[in-house]
Amino acid sequence: MVPGLEQFAAWLHETAPSQWVRAWPWTWAICEALHFLGLSLVIGIVGLLDLRLMGFLPRVPLAALRPLLPWGIAGFVLNAVTGVVFFVGTPEQYVTNIAFAMKMLFLVLSGLNVLFFETQHGHRVLTLADDAPMPAAFRRAGAISLVCWLMVLFWGRMLPYIGNAF
Fold first, then answer.
1. Any long-range contacts for 54-61 (C-beta under 8 Å, 24+ apart)?
2. Is 151 exposed, middle or buried (0-12, 13-18, 19+ CB in 10 A)?
3. Total domain count for the chain?
4. Domain assignment of residue 23, yes or no
5. What digits encode the pLDDT tens for the residues 64-106?
6. Is the entire prediction scored with pTM above 0.85?
């Protein structure tokens, strides 16, 4: 447990934005729907790209998938915004919850994976022939990304069930 997190959660819980999230009955429901939509965009688009990087769907050119990435990014931004609303609304549910910590861990790992891939190999994506076998680095990055995003999904879903286990 990080020192001061419980005090931070208690302080945040008493702020006006936190009270508003809890007071307005539609906030949580609307944010849940938007969070699901954002996650669908991320998993759907990034998952498709990951599968292609892993060597599946060989008839789908990588260049054809790249224009979809802005939609995946939009889904991620939507999830980030709604995730902040959830956290602000009930910070005590998150700061001591192992499921939240694991979700954040896999989110960070996913970000590091894409950062590494884009800086080291991203320029090769568009130059790779459509029928060329996927390089090992591409397959590895796709597998890591897919596992990380599925773990983000899993641990996010476990948040209300695992509870405060720290």
1. 54/134, 54/138, 54/139, 54/142, 54/143, 54/146, 55/133, 55/134, 55/139, 58/131, 61/130
2. middle
3. 1
4. no
5. 888 999 999 999 999 999 999 999 999 998 998 999 999 999 9
6. yes
